[in-house]
Design goal:
Strand content: 25-35%
Distance between the termini: 49 Å
Number of helices: 12
Largest sheet: 17 strands, mixed
Length: 644
């Protein structure tokens, strides 16, 4: 396989992710990083650097250029790269106006080279599947998006939150940048690829923040074929949710969660694969395969962007409707309004906004574990994670019946920790834990070897969910599949989580599971089911039936282990398999049975493990849990009673 020489323009912002992508493709033998273009390139990259993209392309002989620079520089840089002889991967949005879009299109026609636009969601197999999922004609699409952004988001660069900068169109608004993928995906599902495919546009642009552009908006598009697309998004939500497309047929509906490549229909979520758009461009260069997202396919999006460019300034939202927090502004209830707008195909003003900003009776569609009338855990798959996070479904937040949160996600000390779930540092050489990989003789290093757990199906079962997952390596190889069940039930003033998983190899050879301890890092035997608890919990303590304290219980092989604080208690019981406990309490609170404590674990066929976790308010003491052997037996029986 011939390596394609690639340069990356703009490497100090989002371009860093493109650099990592080039490195992963290089590790697979498909690409070579030939140089970087930036006005202030970082040191230590080991490749030529220049502020002149065209000169860099000519000097390095690069065949492809990735452009991840500010929006208003896209057109001149794309044209320069094409005329210098390089195919282009252009970050979204491709251009801030139809005129500049046409300028790039003319350069593509003039040079005969390719321009792929970085709408990554359009590389998903879920997009064509969404066109057929209803089994009847698609009459409309509602789009709902609710994220949160700190004040720093709008000061991250000179063009952030601006419509124009020094007289040049920038158009950095909610609809045109952070939720650009939502708009582009809806247009792609509807087949509205060209400028002429959009017949009419209604816009409502608002802003709560002191910026030029919109941070909360509605747009309703009427396509030439009569399809309606109604979009409502906000960057002023109290939390981040997974945005989605509500697909409307005549009698049926479904949802496409475009950030995670999943379609929900009839209560079942089905996952789909996604093609890396730079990898797709490299295949086009090498083998002349058709592009997934050629520039011409993004004309419909550019038509909407141009309408926003020509629209009046966004309307400021009165302060009485806005909640000011130390680091951000929040519009209470905006999530519910976005859900209603997508379901009813209405705009914000038609729902009474901003006067009607209050919790709605239609909550965001999520997978939630419930015990009685309590929502005790969210089971989530996040679409905003990077490859180095080893993306995976996980539980967060998990709460006691009293509402205390007992999980933590992406803490500063370990940004690749995600609530409670399954994570393994090495499966056949692939990192499914996230972060660095321990290299014997060198220590921890960030390598281009991260995998992800990609969903196949998620379906509701009594008390919870059954999930089937593919464990996918960085080159797209499915190393293993997983069958997972998680259910919740009440027990004696608390509640119990039952979590079972079975891994089966898919490569035709035994799976080899390793921890960092297997490679020489003493005590670092982590890998398997893992629970990250909140670091700021006062009075942390850990104990088993035989010992107390982190040093005493770390590496012990006992049926149960308790991690407690002044506010909550977690009791972990191994119910299938018995592995050493990996335990942290002093530096951070985390617990999990270790599959490969200090020796590699070879799995000829499949591996099954199950754990039961008691989640309780308040502190349980060693005396309460240990007791006599008879009391301990009675307590364990009550925990395990009714286990699936």
């Amino acid at each position: 396989m011939r390596q394609v020489r690639v340069v990356v323009a703009g490497v100090n912002g989002y371009g860093r992710h493109h650099l990592e992508n080039v490195r992963r493709l290089a590790a697979a033998g498909r690409a070579e990083l030939a140089g970087v273009c930036d006005i202030a390139p970082p040191s230590g990259l080991g490749v030529p650097a220049s502020a002149d993209l065209a000169s860099l392309i000519r000097e390095t002989g690069a065949e492809a250029a990735v452009i991840a620079t500010p929006i208003h520089t896209h057109a001149p840089l794309a044209v320069a790269a094409l005329r210098a002889g390089a195919h282009v991967l252009l970050e979204k949005p491709p251009a801030p106006s139809v005129e500049e879009f046409q300028t790039i299109s003319a350069a593509v026609a003039e040079t005969g080279l390719a321009c792929q636009v970085g709408f990554q969601s359009l590389g998903s197999d879920a997009v064509p599947a969404a066109r057929d999922v209803l089994g009847e004609p698609l009459r409309a699409i509602g789009v709902a998006g609710a994220w949160t952004r700190p004040f720093g988001y709008y000061t991250r660069s000179a063009w952030a939150g601006r419509r124009r900068l020094d007289g040049v169109d920038v158009m950095d608004g909610a609809l045109t940048n952070p939720f650009a993928h939502a708009v582009a995906t809806a247009l792609a599902v509807a087949g509205a690829d060209t400028v002429d495919s959009v017949a009419g546009i209604e816009l409502e642009l608002y802003r709560a923040n002191a910026i030029e552009s919109d941070d909360t908006s509605s747009a309703r598009l009427r396509l030439a074929d009569g399809t309606v697309i109604a979009i409502t998004v906000s960057l002023c939500s109290v939390r981040r949710t997974e945005p989605y497309l509500h697909l409307h047929g005549e009698t049926r509906s479904a949802r496409l969660f475009y950030t995670v490549d999943e379609i929900e229909s009839g209560g079942v979520r089905t996952g789909f694969g996604r093609t890396n758009l730079l990898g797709d461009l490299l295949a086009h260069i090498r083998d002349s395969t058709p592009l997934l997202v050629p520039l011409a396919r993004t004309g419909g999006f550019t038509r909407l962007l141009d309408a926003i460019r020509l629209a009046p300034e966004p309307r400021p939202i009165e302060e009485r409707f806005v909640r000011r927090e130390p680091s951000r502004l929040v519009l209470p209830g905006i999530e519910g309004l976005a859900v209603r707008a997508a379901q009813d195909l209405r705009t914000l003003s038609e729902l009474g906004f901003p006067d009607t900003v209050e919790p709605a009776d239609r909550p965001w569609p999520e997978t939630i574990l419930r015990v009685g009338g309590h929502e005790v855990a969210a089971y989530i798959q996040r679409g905003d994670l990077q490859a180095t996070d080893a993306p995976r479904p996980h539980l967060h937040p998990v709460r006691t019946l009293g509402g205390t949160v007992v999980t933590e996600t992406q803490p500063d000390d370990h940004v690749h920790h995600f609530g409670a779930g399954v994570a393994i540092s090495d499966v056949d050489g692939v990192n499914f834990w996230g972060g660095s990989t321990y290299v014997p003789g060198e220590g921890p290093k960030i390598l281009p070897n991260h995998g992800r757990q990609r969903r196949r199906t998620l379906r509701p079962i009594d008390g919870g969910y059954a999930d089937t997952l593919d464990w996918v390596g960085p080159d797209g190889t499915v190393l293993a599949d997983e069958e997972r069940t998680l259910t919740a039930r009440p027990v004696a003033g608390a509640w119990v989580l039952h979590f079972t998983f079975t891994l089966t190899g898919r490569t035709g050879r035994p799976l080899v599971i390793q921890s960092s301890a297997c490679k020489g890092r003493t005590g670092a035997g982590y890998g398997g089911f893992f629970w990250r608890a909140p670091k700021d919990s006062p009075g942390l303590a850990v104990f088993t039936g035989e010992a107390s304290g982190e040093e005493a219980v770390h590496g012990s092989v006992t049926p149960w282990l308790a991690l407690t604080s002044d506010a909550w208690s977690l009791v972990f019981v191994q119910t299938a398999g018995l592995d050493p406990w990996f335990v942290r309490a002093a530096h951070y609170p985390g617990v999990g049975p270790a599959l490969a404590w200090d020796e590699p674990l070879t799995v000829p066929h499949h591996l099954t493990r199950a754990i039961t976790v008691v989640v309780a308010d308040g502190r349980l003491t060693p005396g309460e849990l240990r007791g006599s052997s008879e009391a301990r037996s009675s307590w364990l029986s009550s925990v395990l009673e009714g286990m699936p």
